[in-house]
Amino acid sequence: MEFGATPLFQDVSYVINDKDRIALVGKNGAGKSTMLKIIAGLQQPTSGTVAVSGGSTIGYLPQVMVLSDEHTVREEAEQAFSHISQMQERLDRMNQELADRTDYDSESYMVLVEKFTHESERFQMMGGMNYQAELERTLMGLGFVREDFDRPTREFSGGWRMRIELAKLLLRRPDVLLLDEPTNHLDIESIQWLENFLATKANAVVLVSHDRAFINNITNRTLEISCGRVFDYKVKYDEYVRLRAERREQQLRAYENQQKEIADIKEFIERFRYKPTKAVQVQSRIKQLEKMVPIEVDEVDNSALRLKFPPALRSGDYPLICEGVRKAYGEHVVFHDVDLTIKRGEKVAFVGKNGEGKSTLVKCIMGEIPFEGNLKLGHNVQIGYFAQNQAQLLDGELTVFDTIDRVAKGDIRLKIRDILGAFMFGGEASEKKVKVLSGGERSRLAMIKLLLEPVNFLILDEPTNHLDMRSKDVLKDAIRDFDGTVVVVSHDREFLDGLVSKVYEFGGGLVKEHLGGIYDFLQRKNIESLNDLQKPSLSTSSTMVSSVEEKTGPSNRLSYEQQKEQQKKVRRLEKAVEQCEARIGELEAAVKMLEDQLATPEGAADVSIYERHGALKKQLDEAVNAWEEASLELEEAQS
């Protein structure tokens, strides 16, 4: 693929197989999004071919898309099943024709009966009768509630409308799913749901993401675009990072050996160039030099860039105290009775589903919206606040470089180019005017500006949405070294890990404090995701049990008999889950065998195979539902 004279990448060849979970990685500008567009057929390569096997479908979620405002959430999501609706209409027309006609013995009537039977079986096989249930499950998994289904899409923010587009894409069940930064608009709960969906229900997936935990939990293969070529690793991201480091070491050694060999050859040529007795050897060496293929070393930025916040006044011991804080919009109470105290130097996370009040409490702290209750900021508190709308406050007439040059002080001015490069503004990008930047670029620029201002209390609302992995590492290191107080609203587990020492969980109008890091919090909840935070069995009931134990001591715990009964129940449920998994495996193998037969001309003409396939698919859906129910019961029993 060429833009101008320089190829973005060349001689790229690879195959995407069924059930591949591919992480597409590379530095910014390497061509990851372009590669996805080429696979999706939205962009033509300069040369070469992209071959898609017959009947295979491709679904593509870009970072930015044009969204419709004409429908409700349900109607918009139902567009994923437009092919089913069209099939339903055809079946209704054929059914009416069969009812109206009386020439039962004619050949054309029998052809119509056969066609109707064939179409009905296909309709059943494609999930025509139960797609509404799947639609609702998917929308709720992505964070919507039933009350949202009949609301117009124009009432939702851009992030929520992107979720609707993602739901449509997932519901279409394409053979190859191309996702470009899908987690930018999701909270932790929805990310975990999407992880589970992609791991268990998707076919082939090609994923571009800067969320390290997300791609690690999903992918089993890594394609890296580097030096204009693609390197294929049959391992997940973490393992790829290790193998890549080893490969680069080998490249460096080979490069150094080659450079030494070139130097030796050149020295020989120069020494004996004018000696007639050595003319043959000299010509031989010159040809050898011309034939030598230069060894390339992967592009890696090894500059040890560390940012440190400039010194600021020391704040009071308690930068933030909330007592009985409540916020409501009319009848809707966002949160109530919020009591929290943040000490100087603490780094805390606000987590929970979107809409539970994380950003609202931040706005209360900033004094942007009114609230009830008592909220006090400590002595000498200087707040540095990052939210997505901060990007709109930048001066559009300044260049990227000038924007940072105006806030940089002291030695840091010498590192402005390095800092801009770390946040993807290297080279000519630093001379762009702010007014021509995209929303993501403005957010990154606002983040750099904040890093250079003297503050002692940082409040960061989703700071990692538009950052690549290197930029996130730079930001994380800067915050870790920051000696002030930090509140981070984020869904990025990898970013929060090792950064925060306390987690505030927002949900059901309450804000609960949990000591420890983000994975301590998840482990204590006995869940791998935050999907279950709202469930009484996992949150309120377990909290009640622990509070009773605190007050009355261990004597009120389960008796020995009750514990034995509980263990028996867990073992029984574990066995049920295993049986369900085995049953699903058998059915999937049987379905795959029939689908292979249907892919042949003989099989496609055999109506009985369609019947068996439809019956097996129905059994498979039932087995998956049984597995989900058993797994949920097991989680509740274990907790």
Written description of the protein model:
It comes from Paraprevotella clara YIT 11840. The protein contains 21 helices and 17 strands. The protein is an alpha/beta fold. The radius of gyration is 30 Å and the shape is globular. The chain has helices at residues 32-40, 73-78, 82-100, 107-125, 131-141, 158-171, 188-200, 212-218, 237-272, 279-291, 358-365, 400-405, 416-422, 439-451, 469-481, 493-496, 518-524, 540-552, 560-598, 601-604, 607-638; strands at 2-3, 6-7, 21-25, 58-61, 176-180, 204-208, 221-226, 229-233, 320-329, 332-342, 347-352, 372-377, 383-386, 457-461, 485-489, 502-507, 510-515. The protein has a six-stranded mixed sheet, with helices on both faces. The chain folds into four domains: 1-69 and 152-234, Rossmann fold (3-Layer(aba) Sandwich); 253-291; 320-531, P-loop containing nucleotide triphosphate hydrolases (Rossmann fold, 3-Layer(aba) Sandwich); 560-638, Helix Hairpins (Orthogonal Bundle), CATH 1.10.287.
Low-confidence stretches: 528-557
User: CATH topology of the largest domain, what is it called?
Assistant: Rossmann fold
Helix percentage range = 40-55%
Described by the principal axes of the CA atoms, the overall outline is globular
Q: By helix and strand content, what is the structural category? A: alpha/beta
Distance between the termini: 53 Å
Task: Report the count of strand segments.
Answer: 17
CATH class of the largest domain: Alpha Beta
**What's the oligomerization state?**
single chain
The CATH homologous superfamily of the largest domain is called P-loop containing nucleotide triphosphate hydrolases
The pLDDT mean sits at 80
